[in-house]
Structures are given as C-alpha cells and as structure tokens.
Amino acid sequence: MQHDYDIRLAREADLEQFAEIVNHYIESTAINFHDRPQSEEDWEATWQVLHERYPFIVADREGVIGGIAYASPWKLRGSYDWTCEVTVYVRAGHERQGLGKALSQRVLEILDAQGYRAVVAVIALPNDASVELHKSLGFEHAGTLKHLGYKLDQWRDVSFWQRNNGDPSTPPDPIRPVSEVA
Amino acid sequence: MSWTIRRAGASDMASVAEIVNAHIAGGVAHFGDRSQSAAEWSAEWEARQERYPWLVAERDGVIGGIAYAKPFNPRAAYDWTAEVSIYLRDGLQRQGLGTALYRRLLALLDAQGYRCLIAGITTPNDGSVALHEAFGFRHLGTLERVGYKHGAWRNVGSWQRLVGPQDDSQPRPIRSVSEVDA
Asked: Which of B8, B12, B61, B74 would disulfide-bridge B54, Cβ 3.0–4.6 Å?
C-alpha cells in the first residue's frame, strides 16, 4: 500500500512524538526492553548528542508523525566507528502502509553515503513484520541469543541482523556528518 | 607457587590498566583505540563492583590476569544478562590462569542469580573460544566486518551460557557480590 507521508530529517519539535510512539512499545509489548516510558527530555538528550553523526528520520503527514527511524552507535570502542545500529518504529495504528520500509530505506541511504560499513538491527522475537522488513532491506541473520531478556512474564530471545556496505577489501574513510549527505 | 584468585580492589586498577592497555595497543581482542588510565578503571570498578564481580589473579604481588562482568545492556529486561571479559598479562597464557579466573567468576555470577552470560570474541581466537566452550558457552552467531583494527576488518562472535531453569517463572532479583561471596 502507498503512503502520502513526507519522509524527512527529524527536528527538535518532533521529539515529543518520538516519545509517544516508542512509549507504546515500551508499555504494551516486549519488543522494546525498557520497563518505563521515556520523556521528551530523554529523547532530546539522545537526539542532541547523536543527530549530527547519526540520522534521525520521521514520516510526517500534516504534523502527525506516523513513524520514526534512527541510527545510533553499535558500541563505543574506536574500532566500531563504522558500525551502527538502526531502529524503526511505526505509530500504533499506522502499520501496513509501507512507512517502516520508506523510513528504513531513507536511513540506510544516508548511512551508506556517510560511510558506515556495517548496520546492525536487533529484533526481539517473535516479530515477523520486523524480520520480513529487514530481510527485504538486505539484512542477513547473524544469530539469535536465547532468553536474553525477561519481560511481560516471559524470557525473550533476541535476534541480530546485519547489512554490510562497501568493498570489504578497502579500509574505511572517516564518517561524514549527516548534514553533508542529506 | 600458585596464583591466588581474589576480588579486585581499587589498588589493582593500575595493573588492570596495564594489562588491558597491552591488548588495546597490540591486539584485536579489545576494540579500543586509546589506552585507559587507572583512574578510568577505578571509576568503572567503583560504579559496578557491588553488582558485578571483578577478580584478579595474583602471585607475589604481581597481577597476572583480570576477569569481570558488566551489564550487557542497561534496559531493564536485560537485568539477568551480563557480559563477561577476561584479559591475561602477555606471556601468561596457557598456564590455567584463565580457567582459574573463570571458575570463580562464573560461580559468583551463578550464585548472584544471573541467567545468561555473553562473551564477545574477535575471531579467530582459538584460545579464548576453547576457554569459553570449556565453561559451557555456545557460539550463537557472528557479526562480520563489524570493526576495523590494525589494518583489517574484524569479525566478532557471540558466545552464550544459560543458567537456571529455562521455563518462564519469574527470575529472582540479582544478589550483590558481597552477599554470595561470604
């Protein structure tokens, strides 16, 4: 199905809706492993620190954010500089319109242009929609850790997915800021 | 004379820094790109040592190796999952030090109530893989070309060791290290 959302870089004013969208998954599902909602201020702090080096994208239709996607550091040690983790959430009730795919594609396009060489997605199972989305974007399954978390009265398995970019025989270039490529 | 395995104290952190900095500078097991000071290690040890065990192997006042645990991920559903690390002083491999450190570290973690231990290993590393598998860790997956160090892309495998009943009964709160190390 087609959507008529504007897929664009996030602004500070969007972060209240980031919290709204993600808090649904924190409070009602086991796909996000937090146990308490995050405030707009939490998101502002994260966005401030990361958004120049990692893309934050929204799907916007007349001021209503239907979904978000963003990247963050995979790990902090220096050798991981060219690896990031991607996260995508579609607002409850806005699924099945292609928003997740459109958001993810935009994030991956920017990450590739910035010079990231490996992108990792972490998916708590079961989550068929997310697994299918990531497979369709070229992610490959890199392993599943069993009983990694306990939420809503059950142990949860967590799967790891990976998409590499660029020629494996070449060394990396420094990562370019988001504003240089988007 | 044999090695004594004991809990680390603040005064060991200079030795810890020295041992790990040798791995940071000369190897690929640790993905750091700059050395860490004793003060940085002390801050980390201070913040975590009540909830996560830190052990050293000592002989005649010389620290030969360190093993410790840390949070796998700060989100609450991961509370029963810890990541383990072990570093031996150069030249002290293959003398049973790693086995002695891990035997004690895992006994503490099991008694505290951790249900899942994760080790990330830059592969290939036959010695580390053999050590972990001897303690029941299983290889669950590998992220490819996830780091770049010393002129080459490096793969990192995840090894996992599960503890306790595998049903969905509510896990007990984690006990402090002191409580189980009486």
From this structure: B8
| B78 vs A contacts (CB less than 8 Å) | 33, 148-149
The third-level CATH classification (topology) of the domain covering B4-165 is Aminopeptidase (3.40.630)
Question: Hey, is the C-beta of A86 within 8 angstroms of any chain B C-beta?
Answer: no
Q: How far is A99 from chain B (nearest CA, A)?
A: 26
Positive or negative, the CA dihedral A130, A135, A138, A140 is positive
Structural domain harbouring A135: 6-181
B169 touches chain A (CB under 8 A): no
CATH number of the domain within which A69 lies: 3.40.630.30
Q: What are the DSSP calls for B11-27, one per residue? A: GGHHHHHHHHHHHHHH-
A83·B80 Cβ contact <8 A: no
Chain B contact for A162 (CB, 8 A cutoff): yes
Report yes or no on A1 lying in a domain.
no
A55 contacts A9 by C-beta, under 8 angstroms: yes
Amino acid occupying residue A57 = I
For the stretch A25-50, pLDDT in tens is 999 999 999 999 999 999 999 999 99
Cα of B77 to nearest chain A Cα, Å: 5
What ipTM was reported for this prediction?
Answer: 0.93
- C-beta separation of A64 from A49 below 8 A: no
Global confidence as pTM = 0.95
Determine, for residues A164 and B158 on separate chains, whether the beta-carbon distance falls below 8 Å: no
Helix (H) or strand (E) holding A59: strand A56-61
